[in-house]
């Protein structure tokens, strides 16, 4: 469902992650339409999307899909919808999410540290070349802040997703019912000449 027909080169895949070929607006529209078309109750689909949105606020980049699946499973949400919900975290929103969760967590913990430990200073050198005790002072506040910001974000996504899914499913049911009525109305007209031929 999520795989391309033609695999992209790693460089193209990296470029697509930062800026989709069709643009972020089209990418979001495509994602929402896929969510609407999922099978399941509007509540379960909305819970799944909200679970993915919550997971995208956590600092554990690379594990957002798994965290979204876990949260959706706990709250009996749609697992596939949770994967779409993680799109809330993307290269455009991540800087705001990371800095917001870190600043909120640090403020609540009354935690002071050197300026170079701010998430804006995060780099591959920090994660791979420095000791773990340099990373934990960032992950701790960000984890606390991600819960406090992720829960309202998840509730907001749920409240937006559920009526949208309900409206789409109702429209689809009405369309299918209308097609069924047209088929039923056309059926007697097709069988009537045959019936007359038999009587003759």
Q: How does this model look, in words?
A:
- With 200 residues, the protein is mainly α.
- The protein has one domain (10-162).
- Helix content is 72%, strand content 0%.
- It contains 8 helices and no strands.
- The chain has helices at residues 10-18, 24-36, 42-56, 64-74, 79-85, 94-109, 124-129, 132-199.
Attribute tags:
200 residues, mainly alpha, 0% strand
How much β-strand is present in the residues?
Answer: under 5%
Please count the helical segments.
8
What is the structural class?
A: mainly alpha
Order of helices and strands: HHHHHHHH
Task: Indicate the topology.
Elements: H1 10-18, H2 24-36, H3 42-56, H4 64-74, H5 79-85, H6 94-109, H7 124-129, H8 132-199
Helix pairs in contact: 3-4, 3-5, 3-8, 4-5, 6-8
Summarize the structure.
The protein is an all-alpha fold. The chain has one domain. Helix content is 72%, strand content 0%.
């Amino acid at each position: 469902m999520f795989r391309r027909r033609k695999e992209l080169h790693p460089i193209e895949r990296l470029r697509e992650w930062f800026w989709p070929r069709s643009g972020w607006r089209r990418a979001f529209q495509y994602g929402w339409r896929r969510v609407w078309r999922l099978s399941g109750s509007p509540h379960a689909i909305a819970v799944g999307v909200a679970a993915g949105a919550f997971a995208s606020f956590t600092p554990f980049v690379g594990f957002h899909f798994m965290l979204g699946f876990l949260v959706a499973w706990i709250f009996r949400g749609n697992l596939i919808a949770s994967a779409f919900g993680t799109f809330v975290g993307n290269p455009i929103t991540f800087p705001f999410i990371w800095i917001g969760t870190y600043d909120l967590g640090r403020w609540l913990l009354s935690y002071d540290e050197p300026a170079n430990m701010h998430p804006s200073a995060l780099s591959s050198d920090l994660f791979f070349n420095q000791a773990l005790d340099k990373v934990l002072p960032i992950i701790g506040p960000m984890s606390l802040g991600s819960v406090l910001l992720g829960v309202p974000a998840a509730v907001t996504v749920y409240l937006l997703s559920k009526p949208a899914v309900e409206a789409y499913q109702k429209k689809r049911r009405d369309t299918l019912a209308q097609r069924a009525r047209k088929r039923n109305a056309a059926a007697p007209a097709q069988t009537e000449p045959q019936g007359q031929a038999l009587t003759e």
